[in-house]
Amino acid sequence: MAFTKKVTLKSSDGELFIIDRAVALQSRTIQYVLEDTNPVDAIIPVPAVDARTLSKVLEYCKKHLIDLNTDFEDYSKWDKDFVDAEVWMLYDLIMAADYLHIPPLIDLICDKIASMFKGQTPDKIREIFNIDNDFSKEEEEDFKKKSGWAFK
Amino acid sequence: MTYIPEVIMVDILSRLPVKSLLRFRCVCKAWCTLISRPQFVETHLHDLAVDLELHLGISNKRTATVLDSCNGLLCVIDCFYGFYSLKPPQKLILWNPSTRQCNHIPCPSFVGYQNCMYSFFYDPDSDDYKINGIDIFTLKTNEWRTVEETHSSVIRYWSATYFNGNLHWLAFRYGEDERSSMVAFSIREEKFQEMELPSQRAVFGLRVLGGCLCVDGLYTNDKWVMEEYGIKESWKRLMAFPYRVGDGSSWKLPRVLRFLENGVLLVLHDWKLVLCDSKNNTWKIITSYCSSAPYEREVGLYIQTLVSPYGSGDRLTGNQ
């Protein structure tokens, strides 16, 4: 049976994306589905990712199809612009990249988030991730006393 | 709380410098547990890039000497150490400059005189950090033990090189068959053995490069690597050294610190760090450092880590 050249993905909110098989293969999750079932003209559901996020992920996958005419610096410039986004968008993207299993995209976003974290205070981190502070005032003071230099 | 899979959180946090991590331990208890966990300390250790310049921050009136470094822990003594050492040190310190933790270790008798030898290294067999001289110090038990010396060659350089479960020193064999040799000490069996060097000529700078033991010729520009560990015949001369010296200071020997990717070497020469591309025969100076001392200072590789100088990961909030 011949491999189909096109693959159709269906986002969690029901939108259909018809893309080249080569683009879809950058996701290991989809690669496994294709290898297992090899569906002809079938629709592959992507229940964990909504249309807005999926289109962004596919934009990345298209760009990163190996193209010998693009040099390395073009890629890094493009990648930098790609992750220049709001925190919630990066969050959606990394969850999608994790679900679809696209290691270079996970790597790119982790790098971006880490660079946003670097100079932040614990308060700011809690705010970004909506985390409750479960330390008492005394415990928090204790941290500052013992490694105060890290808070300056 | 916004849900993030732990494996991704670890991936993000392991890219951060130690200073940020120390701060983020107080974000919440879950983060604190994650960052303090030995597996995380190890992941972080493997992920961080190598920082080349080492600035010793010890505010000590006495001179401090870094004996050795391993996985971001420095083994420091509080005196000048080497061929001119006159008085023995009082302190031996394991120091992680990133977390600012110090572990003061009782000084053994052998440290402090020129003919002693030492090495500070991580022993993967016992998952422990050890300091080795004629005696062995293990971080897990915090104790020294004595080892019997059974080799006939005389060890000539005081720093040892750890590789493949053994410590190695350059040595000299006296008698009829006089020549340079190498003494190896097996950590697991605690036994000495002697190994052959590539040539009878003087060599120096024993170290591990690109997963092999490597030495430099003392009066030549040779670089030798032992391709198969322990096999004398596998000593192989490396390609011609590409770095040309044009400023009249050619008596100073360039020393290769690291093999980087694609045939690029990181070289120390004449107080400069130089990147040499052995394929294209080009080089570039990264940085110079000046030294007021008459002898060339050692430059070591140092990385930022959370590894604890106390031998366990749970004392991150220990002595500062």
TrEMBL record, chain A:
This is SKP1-like protein. Pfam families: Skp1, Skp1_POZ. Involved in ubiquitination and subsequent proteasomal degradation of target proteins. Together with CUL1, RBX1 and a F-box protein, it forms a SCF E3 ubiquitin ligase complex. The functional specificity of this complex depends on the type of F-box protein. In the SCF complex, it serves as an adapter that links the F-box protein to CUL1. Residues 104-150 form the SKP1 component dimerisation domain. InterPro entries: SKP1, SKP1-like, SKP1-like_dim_sf, SKP1/BTB/POZ_sf, Skp1_comp_dimer, Skp1_comp_POZ. It comes from Vitis rotundifolia. Part of a SCF (SKP1-cullin-F-box) protein ligase complex. It comes from the Eukaryota. Pathway: Protein modification; protein ubiquitination. Gene3D superfamilies: Potassium Channel Kv1.1, Chain A. One of its GO terms (biological process) is jasmonic acid mediated signaling pathway. Residues 5-64 form the SKP1 component POZ domain. Transmembrane segments: none annotated. SUPFAM superfamilies: POZ domain (SSF54695), Skp1 dimerisation domain-like (SSF81382). Belongs to the SKP1 family. Keywords: Ubl conjugation pathway.
UniProtKB/TrEMBL annotation, chain B:
Residues 1-48 form the F-box domain. CDD domains: F-box_AtFBW1-like. Signal peptide: none annotated. InterPro entries: F-box-assoc_dom_typ1 (IPR006527), F-box-assoc_interact_dom (IPR017451), F-box-like_dom_sf (IPR036047), F-box_dom (IPR001810), Gal_Oxase/kelch_b-propeller (IPR011043), SCF_F-box_component (IPR050796). SUPFAM superfamilies: F-box domain (SSF81383), Galactose oxidase, central domain (SSF50965). Gene3D superfamilies: 1.20.1280.50. Pfam families: F-box, FBA_1. PANTHER family: BNACNNG10540D PROTEIN, F-BOX PROTEIN CPR30-LIKE. NCBIfam families: F_box_assoc_1. This is F-box domain-containing protein.
